[in-house]
Write a structure and sequence with these properties.
Helices cover 44% and strands 15% of the residues. With 755 residues, the protein is α/β, with parallel strands linked by helices. An eight-stranded mixed sheet has the order 7-14-13-9-10-11-12-8. An eight-stranded parallel β-barrel has the order 15-16-17-18-19-20-21-22, surrounded by seven helices.
């Protein structure tokens, strides 16, 4: 049966259009199940009716002509129930409806299963037989499996047709919406330009090297050509990005260096593999390692390696580049956008970005935020190869793409673009102003940093400190653990850049899902595996070196704060504090004059929520990582578009957890900060302030909007809002209630959809 399923699925997936796919389904299912009839009815949203679209066994003349209302007949009954209906005598059922043109009066037995896609009934798959009998469980299971396969085919066909303005029934369709993940805020309206990868590593075959020296020389020429491309693109972007942000291209150059990817590929050639095969093996090894990682920011480095690999391969294959023509309002679309692709579009023409793969932590999303380009990632249902040249609307605030927009929708988004432009210009004057509520409550706003690019941008927007600095980056770009002096220099740069403002450095967060090339870890379930503080406590030599480097880097500055990630028990904090005090003593013994920095715990694991009272007694502060905490509490990967609608930081469970943490900090008299996307959402920030949060740390882009809103509200009003929504049991009701109240106060212009 499994072999049969695979064969049918392969045939269906290779069909040239929906009609062909449906005819394959009905023919193959009828033959496999040995029934006399198999039919597919598709639901037409415009008319609200089920239309017979394909059949094997009923009269062919009925196809496209017979239709039933959504509550009519056995087909409508299956659709309403959203589960299989298995009948021995169909005509005896009260919902039975007879259509003379189908010739179905000859068939007694009926089995119908709904075709569901993302909870939406798209149609009904039916088999019928002359003899009276109930179909057995195996037959029912087979048909359910086929309907699940058919759902994806219909959804793809529907999407492909609707982007051209036609539904599967030939009716006109406008404002087709594709759900994705927000990458960079803002709205863009423009013409799609689809960029395909320059070469396909997956299609490279194995081949023995014929001339070793010639193959090595070919590789060197390809590497040098890509280096030149990187330099050209870096120069082209130099007027749009700060020097710190352009450092990304230096990382690319390092990856191409003879001591990095270049040497590994050369070693593969010397082992007997031709250059293209050696490149494929090296790139795949690195990509697999990155894709296993839990941290979204680090996991997205896989796309950078893939992009470099494709570019090298293009030169190895001597592939000519497709000449792209960029219209005035270009929306760049690709299966997997890379930062380099941004540089290929003239800066004055690029207005939006759409990537089928990737997340809000992708390098391209980070750079897009820095450049102010509205971006959506993870648009997995978008048939991207079919949209070239079409008008699209990209909503980076909500993570949506619209094709074939109506004049009304276009006008609505043009108004939003104008309002956003006016808002940004108005907020710039707040950069130097403190964040103080109308009734005098002071709310410090800090930033999260990871790239050097974040420093200047954060200070320009009035950041008052760093709530989270990711220390993983220096470890990721090397082929060994960086030395104490190397780490010290990196950390010193961050501390000096923000001095005298505080900088919170998270201790190394690596593990089974973030395996370094020189520290490989393989696990079945890396999300719940050996990572974060668990690794560094098992390897105190790593923890001690990093802590000493942080402490030495803070000499004369004394603006360092240390934060411990992935804490799930009191015992882990005890061990970590012991090592920090040991490192401090060693540094002092070396004659370095530093103060003992504040040490805090990052609350991102549900276990830490329930031990917040005990944990806060042991450290100087608690900081909530709302991104991971929400994911762990709800068991939802927020960067997976398939379940993104289940991820919601205003979920009652998340709010209750935050209230519990805030209460523990308040009783202990210790500060609580929030470093996560929730802190950067202006409406959510109101609730966090009401809970008693002492610091909000966010992406620098969101800081002005949060500051504006908090300066327009009273703390007493915020607390009243919290009292109202904390009793609600639905995240979307929480959000709508919160947004409505803020709009009624005249504060709606900075509100964004919370996810």
């Amino acid at each position: 049966m499994l072999t049969t399923l695979r064969r049918i699925v392969q045939e269906v997936n290779s069909a040239k259009d929906l009609s062909t796919a449906l005819n394959i389904i009905v023919a193959q299912v009828r033959e496999t199940m040995g029934t006399e009839v198999c039919s597919v009815y598709l639901f037409e949203p415009g008319s609200g009716r089920y239309v017979l679209m394909a059949t094997k066994g009923l009269n062919q003349d009925a196809v496209g002509r017979v239709s039933l209302a959504s509550n009519e007949g056995l087909v409508g009954h299956v659709g309403n129930r959203e589960e299989p209906v298995n009948l021995e005598d169909a005509a005896a059922h009260p919902k039975y409806r007879y259509f003379a043109e189908t010739g179905e009066e000859r068939f007694a037995s009926f089995l119908g299963v709904p075709i569901l896609h993302h909870r939406r009934v798209m149609g009904v798959l039916v088999v019928q037989q002359k003899e009276r009998r109930q179909f057995d469980e195996s037959e029912e299971s087979f048909l359910v499996t086929m309907s699940a396969q058919l759902a994806g085919v219909i959804a793809h066909a529907e999407a492909t047709g609707s982007i051209r303005g036609l539904g599967w029934g030939g009716e006109a369709v406008q404002d087709t919406r594709f759900v994705a993940v927000p990458g960079a805020p803002g709205v863009a309206i423009g013409q799609a330009v689809v960029v395909l990868p320059p070469a396909d590593l997956g299609s490279v075959p194995d081949k023995p090297v014929a001339d070793l020296d010639a193959e090595l020389a070919l590789l060197q020429r390809a590497l040098e050509a890509v280096r030149q491309d990187m330099q050209t693109l870096s120069r082209r972007l130099s007027s749009q990005l700060r020097p710190e942000e352009l450092a990304l291209f230096d990382v690319y150059q390092m990856m191409l260096d003879d001591s990095a990817l270049g040497s590994e590929i050369s070693a593969g050639i010397r082992s007997g593999q031709w250059a293209q095969g050696a490149l494929r093996d090296v790139v795949n090894a690195h990509v697999n390692r990155f894709e296993m990682m839990d941290d979204p920011y680090l996991r997205e480095r896989a796309s950078d390696v893939k992009d470099l690999g494709r570019r090298i391969l293009a030169y190895l294959q001597e592939a000519g580049k497709r000449e792209l023509v960029f219209p005035e309002n270009t929306i760049l679309v690709s299966e997997e956008l890379s930062p380099v692709m941004l540089g290929e579009v003239p800066k004055e023409k690029l207005v939006g970005l759409v990537s089928v793969l990737g997340s809000g932590s992708s390098h391209v999303a980070i750079l897009a935020r820095a450049m102010g380009i509205p971006t959506v990632m993870g648009a997995v249902d978008l048939p991207y190869t079919r949209v070239d040249g079409m008008e699209l609307i990209v909503d980076g605030n909500h993570g949506e793409v619209y094709s074939n927009p109506s004049p009304e929708l276009r006008r609505h988004y043009y108004d939003l673009v104008r309002e956003e432009r006016e808002l940004i210009q108005g907020l710039e004057k707040l950069n130097e102003a403190p964040c103080v509520t109308l009734d005098g409550h002071r709310m410090p706003l800090w930033v999260n940093t990871g790239l050097l690019a974040d420093v200047a941008r954060s200070l320009d927007r009035g950041a008052e400190g760093v709530g989270l600095y990711r220390t993983e980056v220096p470890f990721m770009i090397q082929d060994r653990f960086p030395s104490e002096k190397e780490q010290q220099a990196t950390y010193r740069g961050q501390l000096e850049a923000f001095h005298p403002l505080p900088v919170t450095m998270r201790s190394l967060d690596i593990g089974g899902d973030k395996a370094l090339t020189y520290f490989p870890i393989k696990e079945d379930n890396p999300f719940l595996g050996w990572r974060g503080i668990r690794v560094t406590l098992d390897h105190p030599e790593i923890f001690l070196v990093q802590t000493r480097a942080m402490l030495k880097a803070s000499e004369g500055l004394n603006n360092l704060r240390i934060m411990l990630p992935m804490i799930s028990s009191v015992y882990e904090v005890e061990e970590a504090l012991h090592l920090i005090h040991r490192a401090y003593s060693e540094v002092c013994d070396e004659g370095v004059k530093v103060h003992m920095p504040p040490v805090g715990v990052m609350i991102e694991v549900p276990a830490a929520v329930y031990q917040a009272r005990e944990l806060v007694q042991m450290v100087d502060f608690l900081s909530v990582g709302t991104n991971d905490l929400t994911q762990y509490l709800l068991a939802v990967d927020r960067n997976n578009p398939r379940v993104a609608d289940l991820y919601h930081s205003l979920h009652p469970a998340v709010l209750q957890a935050l209230v519990k943490i805030a209460s523990a900090c308040r009783i202990a008299g210790k500060p609580m900060s929030v470093c996560g996307e929730m802190a950067g959402d202006p409406a959510a920030a109101v609730l966090l302030m009401a809970m008693g949060c002492d610091v909000l740390s966010m992406n620098a882009t969101n800081l002005p909007k949060v500051k504006w809103l908090l300066r327009q509200i009273r703390l007493s009003d915020a607390k009243a809002l919290l009292d109202e929504v904390i009793e609600l049991d639905n995240p979307y009701l929480v959000q709508s209630t919160l947004h409505l109240a803020l709009r009624n106060m005249g504060l709606g212009k900075v509100l964004t959809q919370t996810r």
